[in-house]
């Protein structure tokens, strides 16, 4: 792996970098904003890219929000976007599942969901039947009757053939037990994404992987992991390419996570990857000898690209 | 590793086996009972061992119950025992923590608990200050205020120096977030046990490791795992030895989990290990070539030892 090129402050290099690409895929949290705070200069930078005829796509692993929810967030922060520019792991999962279930003429067509409303909205948009999710009937303590019904199968829907795990702020023992019971009956194991942590309020909280898929994988044992539809999974890249008819060589992934965003771009053989240091990643992470992967370029912050307009 | 000796039906071999030992350490669930159903012949077998002057100790990774709670269960099932015969992972953890905290003159003397009342009872019995656990204030959804208070530290008790994870039927996002925040401030990471599953109602449910320590280890990253006080951790064996003044060479561990019970006995250099096939373990698990470990002896069920009295 060659050394990443540092672009901050180098106007000529930035112009050359921008000229290489038609499409920029942006991770959002830690790149464009942190929580509800949009980073200075981000809006101008996105506008500058649009003025130069570039397409910007917002590619997020956050599965709690649907594309419409995400657009609301972008709009509230004055970031120019349409719903078509948003690509989330819930949407990616819904497309993948709908295709998988259709192709297999799946005899068990329902999905048991661990997650929030964003997943439900996207599954519904692809006409996939689901249960679990935000159902208030599952937001409670487990009872002796539940133990019995999950053990003997009477508490399970025989039409469930797939478990989809995402970030669930209402995770509990009953949901984990139910998902585990479906997996033991042979349900396909999928995850919107397996991020270990969730950046919030300039700190870190449990991520999707830590609350649902990692615990379930540990129960199932044998090293079995879910098919993940978020970055860095190429299921997501294929879906993005299919929707936007990308020329991968003229596409650049911009992100703040080495093992998620940068790996996503490199595994997807994109023309470029750009790391920003406003989120999780530190320069040390990709400069150290045993770095998992390395971006092609890096800047301190997204708005450092803005000097191209000077 | 040599082949385990099969004792079922071999009266002479059983008598020889029993004569080798003064103390039998019994795992409980899957060995003596399943759920609330005591296996046939178990009571007679325990009595037979007592009549032969053997000591029986009940060594359980179940941290949701205190020793007193466990004694109630044993008594309800007519298994002869006193509270002194019970050794659980909650008790083992309390002893370990109390010693660790005392030795280090720990400036942060409080323990944040993920778990049920059993852990609290045992910590209290060792005069260890704790918070979390069954506190109703944590049995609720996370709020924006919680995110803020955990991120800026105002929601954390500055005296917490240790996080103890066990099985929690009321696990939720708020508890995991709080434990994660303490771990990030440098708290020591401990677990009563890290069992992946919990046998219940002749089926399997999420175990202690899957609901608390594995998710937290995944968030913390870098392969960091908690110090575990349950089987197969030798912290538990040391505590058992200290309490009962065991002669390890004349002690046998009886259990139904290869990686928990049998490993516990072998790592502890006990004189013997006996596997039973009434729980998780199948004969194939220790007969296959890449078996993690192998018991010295096995029987179909504990009561097969009972023919020694014939």
Q: Can you describe this structure?
A:
2 copies of one chain form a homodimer. The first copy, chain A, is built from 11 helices and 16 strands. The first copy, chain A, is α/β, with parallel strands linked by helices and 310 residues long. The first copy, chain A, folds into 2 domains: 5-61 and 232-309, Rossmann fold, CATH 3.40.50; 90-228, HAD superfamily/HAD-like (Rossmann fold, 3-Layer(aba) Sandwich), CATH 3.40.50.1000. A 7-stranded parallel β-sheet of chain A has the order 1-16-15-14-2-5-6, sandwiched between helices. In chain A, strand 5, helix 3 (67-76) and strand 6 (86-88) form a beta-alpha-beta unit. In chain A, helix 4 packs across helix 5, helix 4 crosses helix 9 (234-244) and helix 7 packs across helix 8. The mean pLDDT of chain A is 92. The interface between A and B is large, with 37 and 37 residues.
Quickly describe the structure.
Chains A, B: Substrate binds at residue 231. The structure is a homodimer of 310-residue chains. Helices cover 36% and strands 19% of the residues of chain A.
- If strands are numbered along the chain, what order do they take across the biggest sheet of chain A? 1-16-15-14-2-5-6
Question: Which regions of chain A have little confidence, pLDDT < 50, spanning 5+ residues?
Answer: none
| Principal-axis shape of chain A | elongated
Structural class of chain A: alpha/beta
Largest sheet of chain A at a glance?
7 strands, parallel
In CATH, what is the class of the largest domain in chain A? Alpha Beta
Q: How many strands of chain A? A: 16
Assembly type: homodimer
**N-to-C SSE series of chain A?**
EHEEEHEHEHEHEHEHEEEHEHEHEHE
CATH homologous superfamily caption of the largest domain in chain A: HAD superfamily/HAD-like
How many H/I helical runs of chain A?
Answer: 11
Distance between the ends of chain A:
32 Å
Question: CATH topology of the largest domain in chain A, what is it called?
Answer: Rossmann fold
Give the mean pLDDT of chain A.
92
């Amino acid at each position: 792996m060659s050394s990443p090129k540092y672009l901050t402050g180098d106007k000529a290099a930035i112009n050359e970098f921008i000229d290489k690409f038609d499409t920029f895929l942006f991770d959002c949290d830690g790149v464009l904003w942190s929580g509800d705070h949009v980073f200075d200069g981000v809006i101008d930078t996105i506008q500058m890219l649009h003025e130069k005829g570039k397409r910007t796509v917002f590619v997020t692993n956050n599965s709690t929000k649907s594309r419409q929810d995400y657009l609301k967030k972008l709009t509230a922060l004055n970031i120019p976007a349409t719903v078509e520019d948003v690509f989330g792991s819930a949407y990616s999962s819904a497309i993948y599942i709908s295709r998988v279930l259709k192709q297999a003429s799946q005899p068990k067509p329902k999905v048991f969901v661990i997650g929030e409303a964003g997943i439900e909205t996207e599954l519904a948009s692809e006409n996939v039947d689901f249960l679990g999710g935000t159902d208030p009937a599952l937001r409670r303590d487990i009872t002796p009757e539940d133990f019995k019904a999950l053990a003997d199968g009477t508490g399970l829907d025989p039409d469930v053939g797939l478990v989809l795990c995402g970030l669930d702020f209402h995770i509990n023992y009953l949901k984990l037990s139910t998902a585990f019971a479906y997996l033991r009956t042979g349900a396909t194991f999928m995850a919107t994404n397996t991020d270990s942590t969730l950046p919030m309020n300039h700190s870190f909280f449990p991520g999707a992987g830590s609350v649902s898929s990692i615990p379930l994988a540990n129960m199932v044992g044998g090293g079995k992991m879910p098919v993940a539809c978020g970055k860095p999974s190429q299921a997501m890249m294929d879906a993005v390419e299919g929707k936007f008819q990308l020329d991968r060589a003229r596409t650049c992934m911009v992100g703040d996570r080495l093992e998620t965003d940068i790996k996503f771009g490199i595994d997807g053989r994109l023309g470029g990857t750009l790391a920003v240091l406003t989120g999780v990643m530190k320069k040390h992470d990709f400069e150290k000898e045993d770095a998992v992967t390395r971006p092609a370029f890096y800047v301190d912050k997204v708005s450092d690209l803005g000097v191209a307009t000077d």
